[in-house]
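User: Just a sanity check before I run the rest of the batch. Below are the structure tokens for the first item. I only need the designed sequence back.
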């Protein structure tokens, strides 16, 4: 008779246990997040951890199935553990769109799951602080979220000089790509490829761009855009009447009013690979770049329409509890 296999006392790969000493740290972080959100007028919400697979596929495409935990229940429904909160938030807003008074400012601290290869700062589950403002067209929504996030970092004990928030505008990149002769139907794939810079070799990115149909000249022009260092340089390329440049200038001007202008830097390489971003995008990094992005997000004005809701402007941020 075969001896029974010994049972491992470790959690499943990529998952974590939290002993009491770990909970002291976790509670301190979560308390700082919640207080920072409340200080800036955000209201708490929560939702079920299991979502419809169709909802996630509408938001991210069919390939999302390869990156998440998904399954069929006993009735044959296709479900998944939520990989992030934005699709769930969009569903909840769409369900009561006729009853809500906009803009709404909501936040949550939610556990999310992704079935993917583990790398530095990425496990298969993590907790994430999300803040979203739905129904506000003004760039003031971005500043509310960035200022609240900075408040959260201060509450956690991070000095103002220890991090920078890198700012870009997806609409600016679209304008510059168009001026380079790259048709709009290629822009989403170009964004996705360029977002991989630093994670894969440039030669591999060139292969992705070539597969999208870009010739060698267009690929060179695309890479040359990443050499732009300032908003003024971008304005020279985009033109004085660029709406995207005007939005960036307004954001940096408002940052002075919110007292966070010293932490904001323009960075045309910040792209955010998710296709639903439509305007300002941002990522925060420690100044020594020892870790992955501390938090990131941006404007996603079209997401509600992809799941059947009414067109509604929106800005959101995700701040995970694992960065190293």
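Assistant: Here's the designed sequence for the first item:
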């Amino acid at each position: 008779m075969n001896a029974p296999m010994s049972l491992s006392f470790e959690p499943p790969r990529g998952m974590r246990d939290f002993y009491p000493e770990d909970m002291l740290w976790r509670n301190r972080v979560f308390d700082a997040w919640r207080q920072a959100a409340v200080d800036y007028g955000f209201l708490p919400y929560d939702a079920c951890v299991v979502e419809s697979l169709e909802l996630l596929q509408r938001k991210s495409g069919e390939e999302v199935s390869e990156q998440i935990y998904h399954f069929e229940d006993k009735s044959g429904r296709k479900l998944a553990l939520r990989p992030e909160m934005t699709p769930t938030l969009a569903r909840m807003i769409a369900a009561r769109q006729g009853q809500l008074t906009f803009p709404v400012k909501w936040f949550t601290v939610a556990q999310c799951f992704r079935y993917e290869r583990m790398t530095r700062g990425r496990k298969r589950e993590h907790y994430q602080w999300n803040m979203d403002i739905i129904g506000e067209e003004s760039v003031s929504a971005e500043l509310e979220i960035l200022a609240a996030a900075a408040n959260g970092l201060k509450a956690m004990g991070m000095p103002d000089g220890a991090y920078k928030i890198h700012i870009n505008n997806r609409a600016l990149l679209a304008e510059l790509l168009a001026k380079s002769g790259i048709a709009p139907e290629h822009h989403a794939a170009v964004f996705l490829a360029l977002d991989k810079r630093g994670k894969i070799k440039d030669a591999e990115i060139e292969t992705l761009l070539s597969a999208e149909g870009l010739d060698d000249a267009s690929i060179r022009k695309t890479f040359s855009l990443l050499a732009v260092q300032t908003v003024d340089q971008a304005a020279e390329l985009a033109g004085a009447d660029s709406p995207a440049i005007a939005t960036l200038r307004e954001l940096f001007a408002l940052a002075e009013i919110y007292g966070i202008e010293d932490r904001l830097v323009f960075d045309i390489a910040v792209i955010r690979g998710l296709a639903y971003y439509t305007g300002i995008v941002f990522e925060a990094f420690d100044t020594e770049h020892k870790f992955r992005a501390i938090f990131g997000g941006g404007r996603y004005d079209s997401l509600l329409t992809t799941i059947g809701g009414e067109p509604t402007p929106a800005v959101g941020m995700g701040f995970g509890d694992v960065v190293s």
